[in-house]
Amino acid sequence: PLTFTFRAADGTPLFRQTRTLLANGGVTLKDIPSGSFQLAVEGDRWLRRVTGVNTTSGNVTNLSLLLRAGDTNQDNSVD
User: Which of 31, 67, 70, 77 has the maximal Cβ count within 10 Å?
Assistant: First the structure.
């Protein structure tokens, strides 16, 4: 499973969704409030990746991220 943490640009409280990847490597994120967010994506043994997203329809679509392997102890570093 992957954890998607949304941090709003306006300082409202962050929120999370946890999802399991589909067979094609995709995932569906729904019921996202409209706005601008910093989205952090992390999973077991992968380095966290942060990117900006803007939502208007309540969904995040067409987002493509590469999560690099190597975080064996979940501290977001390869050591």
Answer: 67
Give residue for tokens 């975080």: 71
The neighbouring-strand residues paired with 35 are 55
What letters, b where the CB count within 10 A reaches 16 and e where it falls short, cover 34-58?
A: eeebebbbbbeebbbeeeebebeee
Provide the pLDDT for residue 31: 85
Q: How is 32-75 classified by DSSP, letter by letter?
A: PPSEEEEEEEEETEE--EEEEEEESSS-B-S----PPEEETTSS
Q: pLDDT tens across 42-65, in order?
A: 988 888 999 998 887 777 877 888
Query: What are 53's two structure tokens?
Result: 């997203």
